[in-house]
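Narrative summary of target 7.
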Amino acid sequence: MRGLNRPGVIQKWGRMALKCGLLLTDAKLWESLGGQLRDQADDATDGIRERYEDTADRLTRARDAYQGRRDWVTPAVSFVGGVGLGAGIALLLAPSSGAETRSAIREKVVDLKNRAQDAATESTLYRSAVRASSTGTD
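Modeled conformation, tokenized:
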């Protein structure tokens, strides 16, 4: 702090403060800085806009590609939901007791399972018969 007491040092600090004050009040300097900031902001805005448009285009292409695969999902879910809702309402309003209803449902499920197994067996027998006849090994 002893060096600040000399008149030359105080004068240098004063001149530096005046120069900074003149620079900060210079209209040309502020206009130049403002122009540079605007240019940089415009460049950033352009970059952001390009990235946004690129991303939007990619999302649109992905949605269009996926749209074809998704067309059957909504009707299928609606159908399955309707079947489930109808079955639930039918069980609630059924005139038979719970044990009788469960027994009837169990019989229907077993019957459907047997039909599916029979259809699979017939299909397998048919395919093996077609293969055997096509090879001439009857």
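The chain has a mean pLDDT of 80.
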